[in-house]
Write a structure and sequence with these properties.
Helix content is 23%, strand content 37%. It has 154 residues and is an alpha+beta fold. The protein has a single domain, classed as Hotdog Thioesterase (Thiol Ester Dehydrase, Chain A, Roll), CATH 3.10.129.10.
Length: 154
């Protein structure tokens, strides 16, 4: 278990997640297949070639899900009770096959539950495309998790 307990989160801290991931065509295809999302912008090269993007886009929900997964080891691995919400989701720039993404989380709020046995932690998650020199943000959202407190973990 490498996640943090409620007490270990500090409001204002930014957590740089070391793991990165290059998104492949098969990642995008599998996610679209599993979720039954047959949007041609994600799957049809000829269709996508005639759009403003000129090529297929990686499904935005895959990008968000991958970002959450990349944050887990440094935040909530083994210390979470539940994810409570994902809010304010934005996709300001596209992700294409072959793009590598990195993620950082900034703790924006934390508070104990009314019983004092757990805590609620909110993090602003930013996802960057690292194969561009400017590293544009490709997804951002707020993630709220119900976290264990160390003293009540067992």
């Amino acid at each position: 278990m490498t996640g943090r307990y409620y007490e270990e989160f500090e409001v204002g801290e930014t957590i740089e997640h070391d793991k990165r991931r290059t998104v492949s065509e098969s990642d995008n295809q599998a996610f679209c297949d599993m979720t039954m999302n047959q949007q041609p912008l994600h799957l049809d090269a000829e269709f996508a070639a005639d759009t403003q993007f000129g090529e297929r886009l990686v499904n935005g929900l895959y990008t968000m899900s991958l970002a959450v997964g990349l944050t887990i080891p440094d935040t909530t691995d083994g210390t979470i009770v539940a994810n409570l919400s994902y809010d304010n989701v934005e996709h300001p720039n596209p992700v294409f096959h072959g793009d590598t993404i990195r993620v950082q989380s900034t703790v924006t709020d934390k508070r104990e539950t009314s019983d004092g046995e757990r805590g609620i932690v909110t993090m602003h998650v930013e996802v960057f495309k690292v194969n561009d020199q400017e590293e544009p943000v490709v997804c951002e959202f707020d993630r709220t998790a119900l976290s264990l407190k160390r003293e009540h973990a067992e």
